[in-house]
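Note to self: keep these together.
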Amino acid sequence: MNTICATCLLALATSTSAAAAAPPSGGEPETRRVVLEDDAVRIEELRVRGQVLRISVTPKAAGARPYEIVPADASRDLSQQRGLTGQRLWNLFSF
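Structure:
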């Protein structure tokens, strides 16, 4: 992975927004999908009400498996967070 991809991943994993968007008249929250792509990797991000809920990374190299990055929880103090935040997770089984 080149440095551009690592920078994108770091920005996506640590970016959260405290400001929640008002839901549209239908009552559904605002959702946004962001896709960043270069020669080596495709990064997909799902945001609901401005908060990052899911980051999926699909490497384009032959034999490389896609994985997810656990985003930070905006409702918690980032200095107190421990656990899986920022870690990579691979799907072992799919049905």
